[in-house]
Design a protein that fits this description.
By secondary structure, the protein is mostly beta strands. Helices cover about 0% and strands about 50% of the residues. It has no helices and 11 strands. The strands form 2 sheets. Strands 2, 4, 5, 6, 9, 10 and 11 form a 7-stranded mixed sheet that branches. A hairpin with a 4-residue loop joins strand 7 and strand 8.
């Protein structure tokens, strides 16, 4: 069982930046790919970014390419999502999730955090 805890969300203005963190509070993230997903009110959960254990594979949703950067510090069991040039449409609850496979579908992930709210005002 891997317990994930997200942090770093908040209320910002359009154009601002935020860095989200996803920390494993139990067990190590060793061997796990970690993905970020988000869900806006009234919308389905959508893929944002994913990073493999050895950082050999990184993928982004088209909507965040060039603005968001996913990274990880395996020594700290933490994965980050640097979000720059935020837009109001980035407003959502952001979740991190762990999987032995990774991928862009939430169904491929079996450990999920509780989420952190990101609100971008115009």
């Amino acid at each position: 069982q891997v317990q994930l805890v997200e942090s770093g969300g908040g209320l910002v203005q359009a154009g601002d930046s935020l860095r989200l963190s996803c920390a494993a509070s139990t067990r190590t993230l060793s061997g796990y790919a970690v993905g970020w997903f988000r869900q806006a009110p009234g919308k389905e959960r959508e893929f944002v970014a994913t990073i493999s254990w050895r950082v050999t594979r990184i993928n982004y949703a088209d909507s965040v390419k060039g603005r968001f950067t996913i990274s990880r510090d395996n020594a700290k069991n933490t994965v980050y999502l640097q979000m720059n040039s935020l837009k109001p449409e980035d407003t959502a609850v952001y979740y991190c999730a762990a999987s032995s496979k990774g991928g862009v579908s939430g169904r491929e992930y079996y450990y999920w955090g509780q989420g952190t709210q990101v609100t971008v005002s115009s």
